[in-house]
Write a structure and sequence with these properties.
This protein is mostly helical and 183 residues long. It has five helices and two strands. A hairpin with a 2-residue loop joins strand 1 and strand 2. Helix 2 packs antiparallel against helix 3. The longest helix has 31 residues. It is elongated.
């Protein structure tokens, strides 16, 4: 059944090696996915094949997976989701506390989710997959979006405090970051 998902070679037994799992003799099979393969999908396919292969040898052998990369990938995705959610909540809270304006929370509340969701569209169109490196880049990029949005808003507030009209303050305050305000 292993030949369904891999290139398998039958070779001579090496009597100088022994495989043990929990103290019992075992045969170890290490599966390396090809570059660019989806680890979670590969793991699911291996599990399906293992379930089918158990039927003929129920009493003679058992099959276990002591470690799979799927767990670490799912944990990394879960950690990133949690980190981004906490970041959004903290940024909104900090902006509200320091700028003391209910209007001020709309900038990070809209900019952050849109930038995160908007990242996945080009990634999908360009054929990129989500891996640990792209998750880390997404987390760091979120920090840049927050920093730019807060800096831009603070600059607009500074111009408003100097007495400029709201439209003029928005134009001057956002020009430094390359943003344009359209009325």
């Amino acid at each position: 059944m292993l030949h369904d998902v891999a290139d398998v070679q039958d070779a001579n037994e090496n009597i100088r090696n022994i495989g043990l799992y929990n103290g019992a003799p075992a045969v170890g099979v290490i599966v390396y996915p090809i570059p660019g393969a989806n680890i979670v999908a590969t793991d699911a396919q291996i599990r399906r094949v293992r379930r089918r292969s158990r039927r003929p040898c129920r009493t003679a052998c058992t099959s276990t997976s002591p470690w799979t990369a799927r767990r670490s990938v799912n944990a990394a995705v879960g950690d990133t989701e949690r980190t981004l959610a906490i970041a959004v909540v903290l940024v909104i809270g900090v902006v509200f506390v320091f700028l003391q304006s209910a209007q001020s929370i709309w900038i990070p509340a809209v900019a952050l989710p849109l930038s995160i969701i908007g990242t996945f569209g080009p990634m999908y169109l360009m054929g990129y997959s989500i891996d640990n490196l792209s998750l880390m880049a997404l987390t760091i990029g979120t920090g840049f979006v927050v920093d730019d949005a807060v800096s831009c808003f603070e600059n607009i507030m500074r111009h408003l405090d100097q007495g400029l009209a709201p439209r003029e303050a928005a134009l001057r305050g956002s020009a430094r970051w390359g943003f344009t305000v359209v009325s």
